[in-house]
């Protein structure tokens, strides 16, 4: 069970997360939606402890840490232990450019887990297979497409078998075609009961993958529920208005031009418009 | 054989000897010490506590703002007045190392900052410690950026070691002076000396290209396949 209790985060005078409490059941996929600057990324980064929460409690499996007044600053060991319970997928992939795809996936196993090389390599190859990147094991990240890089990044995040996969807008830097490769990989992970928390603007991703959707605005959880409920019958008026912008259809004249024109370029444009 | 060529050939062994026994070791030792000092300086200025960082900033300011020749004179001729006496060679190594340290610290600092923040985060996110992230993720990428300007400093240093002549270190330039003063052929001797420095620098430039290729492996291949 992943539990966040009353997480607060300040950056100087800015109050970025306000009393956020959240539970993610094992095997469940939760989508974090909300406007830019609502605190989605910060929340993920707090769970991974790339940011230290100003207050609150994080529980991941049997590791738990408390923050804020009256609690000792968490030690390096505690942070390390909690961090290894999570894997992080970044919007811009952040693969290590001086290491091949395979070496990227092996890195944590070699350095953190201190596995022997052969064992780490076998595990890394298996993960690359899982994300459909086995054929590019020896490629430099710079030679891969964005979608391929993100799939390698997912394999890297999974290498040390974390209990929770955090994805920070995993498809936002990708065009729709490449994004769909990444969505396919995430969907497969979801089918295998990987627990995931995904910050996203991608309605398709949120609607097709998530069991639960959490709507965050201005650092607060405004609404949460099943994806069906939140997208189809939003009760909260603010959720309704936000979701309607995600679902907004194409303008009338676009539908006409689509019938007339079948160039790839337009298809991509249309797909993109759907994603907004 | 013309007279000038004969003189060049005859003076080559003592000049090369001075180069290999004094100039090259002086350069290598000073660069190694200076690079280490520069690395520590860069790390402290980037990640160290404030007062310490300020101290190192003062050091960089002081060294970069004063002439190398004056620094060498201060160390070798000045400090004995304060009771600190160095032999010529150690005095030269200290002077050159301090100088190299100040300049390379800025190169290293810039190179470390050139690696995107996200690389630190990616390294942390898979559980690497600060030291592991620095060694395995940041430094290899920073090295690629740092090699050309560091090679600059190295090549400058080889030539600057000729200043050690004034500290009575018998390196190439001093050997040339000595021979020129007895043969009265400064044009020939100093031309030959210049050519020897040029040869040393050329070897280094080739080394720089090798290093760049090694640290930039991933970039070259990326360009080829794109």
TrEMBL record, chain A:
GO terms for cellular component: plasma membrane. Its main location: membrane. Residues 2-243 form the ABC transporter domain. The keyword Nucleotide-binding applies. It comes from the Bacteria. Keywords: ATP-binding, Cell membrane, Membrane, Nucleotide-binding, Transport. GO terms for molecular function: ABC-type amino acid transporter activity; ATP binding; ATP hydrolysis activity. SMART domains: AAA. It is a peripheral membrane protein. It holds the Pfam family ABC_tran. It is found in: Cell membrane. InterPro entries: AAA+_ATPase, ABC_ATPase_HisP-typ, ABC_transporter-like_ATP-bd, ABC_transporter-like_CS, MetN_ABC_transporter-like, P-loop_NTPase. PANTHER family: AMINO ACID IMPORT ATP-BINDING PROTEIN (PTHR43166), L-CYSTINE IMPORT ATP-BINDING PROTEIN TCYN (PTHR43166:SF35). Belongs to the ABC transporter superfamily. This is Amino acid ABC transporter ATP-binding protein (PAAT family). It comes from Aquitalea magnusonii.
Automatic annotation (TrEMBL), chain B:
GO terms for cellular component: ATP-binding cassette (ABC) transporter complex. The keyword Cell membrane applies. It holds the Pfam family BPD_transp_1. Coiled coil: none annotated. Residues 20-208 form the ABC transmembrane type-1 domain. GO terms for molecular function: transmembrane transporter activity. The keyword Cell membrane applies. PANTHER family: L-CYSTINE TRANSPORT SYSTEM PERMEASE PROTEIN TCYL, MEMBRANE COMPONENT OF AMINO ACID ABC TRANSPORTER. The chain crosses the membrane at residues 20-46, 58-79. CDD domains: TM_PBP2. Keywords: Amino-acid transport, Cell membrane, Membrane, Transmembrane, Transmembrane helix, Transport. This is Amino acid ABC transporter membrane protein (PAAT family). It is a multi-pass membrane protein. One of its GO terms (biological process) is amino acid transport. Belongs to the binding-protein-dependent transport system permease family. HisMQ subfamily. It is found in: Cell inner membrane; Cell membrane.
């Amino acid at each position: 069970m992943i539990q966040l209790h009353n997480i607060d985060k300040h950056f100087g005078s800015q109050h970025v997360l306000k009393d956020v409490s959240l539970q993610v059941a094992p095997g469940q996929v939760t989508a974090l939606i909300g406007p830019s600057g609502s605190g989605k990324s910060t929340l993920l980064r707090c769970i991974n402890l790339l940011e230290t929460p100003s207050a609150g409690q994080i529980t991941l499996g049997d590791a738990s840490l408390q923050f804020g007044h009256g609690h000792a600053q968490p030690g390096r060991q505690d942070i390390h232990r909690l961090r290894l319970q999570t894997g992080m997928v970044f919007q811009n992939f952040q693969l290590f450019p001086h290491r091949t795809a395979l070496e990227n996936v092996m890195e944590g196993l070699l350095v953190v887990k201190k596995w022997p090389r052969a064992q780490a390599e076998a595990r890394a190859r298996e993960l690359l297979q899982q994300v459909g990147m086995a054929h590019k094991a020896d490629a430099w990240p710079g030679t891969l497409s964005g979608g391929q890089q993100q799939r390698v990044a997912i394999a890297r995040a999974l290498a040390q078998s974390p209990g929770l996969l955090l994805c920070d807008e995993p498809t936002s830097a990708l065009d729709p075609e490449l994004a769909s490769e990444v969505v396919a990989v995430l969907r497969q992970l979801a089918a295998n009961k990987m627990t995931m928390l995904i910050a996203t603007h991608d309605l398709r991703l949120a609607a097709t993958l998530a069991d639960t959707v959490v709507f965050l605005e201005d650092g607060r959880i405004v609404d949460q529920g099943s994806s069906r409920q939140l997208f189809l019958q939003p009760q909260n008026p603010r959720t309704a208005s936000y979701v309607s912008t995600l679902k907004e259809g194409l303008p009338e004249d676009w539908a006409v031009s689509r019938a007339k024109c079948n160039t790839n370029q337009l298809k991509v444009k249309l797909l993109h418009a759907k994603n907004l | 054989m013309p007279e000038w060529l004969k003189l060049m050939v005859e003076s080559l062994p003592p000049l090369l000897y001075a180069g290999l026994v004094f100039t090259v070791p002086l350069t290598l030792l000073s660069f190694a010490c200076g690079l280490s000092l520069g690395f520590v300086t860069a790390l402290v200025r980037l990640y160290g506590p404030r007062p310490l960082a300020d101290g190192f900033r003062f050091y960089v300011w002081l060294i970069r703002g004063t002439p190398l020749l004056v620094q060498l004179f201060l160390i070798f001729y000045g400090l004995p007045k304060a009771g600190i006496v160095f032999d010529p060679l150690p005095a030269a190594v200290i002077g050159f190392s301090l100088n190299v340290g100040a300049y390379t610290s800025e190169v290293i600092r810039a190179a470390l900052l050139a690696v995107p923040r996200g690389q630190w985060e990616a390294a942390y996110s898979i559980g690497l410690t600060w030291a592991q992230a620095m060694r395995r993720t940041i430094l290899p990428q920073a090295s690629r950026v740092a090699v050309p300007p560091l090679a600059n400093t190295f090549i400058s240093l080889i030539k600057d070691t000729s200043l050690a002549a004034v500290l009575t270190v018998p390196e190439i330039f001093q050997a040339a002076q000595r021979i020129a003063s007895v043969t009265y052929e400064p044009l020939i001797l100093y031309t030959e000396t210049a050519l020897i420095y040029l040869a040393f620098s050329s070897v280094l430039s080739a080394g720089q290209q090798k290093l760049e290729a090694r640290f930039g492996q991933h970039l070259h291949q990326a360009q080829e396949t794109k």
